[in-house]
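RECORD CONTENTS
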Amino acid sequence: MSWRLTRRGALSAGAGVLLGGAGRAAPRRIVSLNPCLDAILVRLVDRSRIAALSHYSRDVGSSSIVDIARSLPVTYGGAEEVVALRPDLLLTGNFTPQATRAALARMGLIAEEFPAPDTVAASLAQVGRVAALVDEPDRGAVLVAAIRAAIAGAAPPPGTPPLTALVYQSNGFASARGTLVDEMLGRTGFINVAPRYGLTQTGDVPLERLIADPPDVLLAGRGHPGAPSWADRVLRHPALSQVAGRMRREVFPQTLMNCGGPVLIETARTLAAARNDALRRRA
């Protein structure tokens, strides 16, 4: 969905002119309210052009750009706070609350809205769209090429036996088929077994099902000291000792589970390393 600042809103917010037509200037005060868009934005524009990222990008448990985000302003997404930043380009995800969108619209500030991509192709298209909006098509093309190269480089060698795998998120949810994580599993030599446990969408897999029919590999983040992840607690359960020889635990950080775009570069490398390690230990 594509929105624009109204003329009245642009003037009242002190904003510049948005990209999108002949002779229009590239945006110089860009605000992002979505952490996945943050991760794309910081790869495409100079820091001086970023008025604020979303505060989620400073979350060490879920963000892939914490160090960068700590060096830039952030916003909590309140309408008045955003308007005060005087953006000439506002990027949001489609999970931005409707009340916030309505409040921003009343103040004359309208955003470029992006859905969460559920395929690699959609994620690459999203990078291209952001690059066009910020008037950095060359940087966008370089980033897309880097993502494609990382995914291609992470593909298993011909003849590599596939491994069954389950991805556990922080609250115990497993990533189902039809998700971006599911596609990345397939591209790196894994078979997502979430449907084997009856999951048609991302959801919880009971411990009993995991013990009765374990995958070759359980991919989960590493818990913080003193605050283990749900998967950490599951794997420490005494009942799992009976499948210890049949299911490998490989690290797949929570920071790679939420976004596409440039995050797919590290996702591809991490999954390929997990595959190689599991196969090596199986031999």
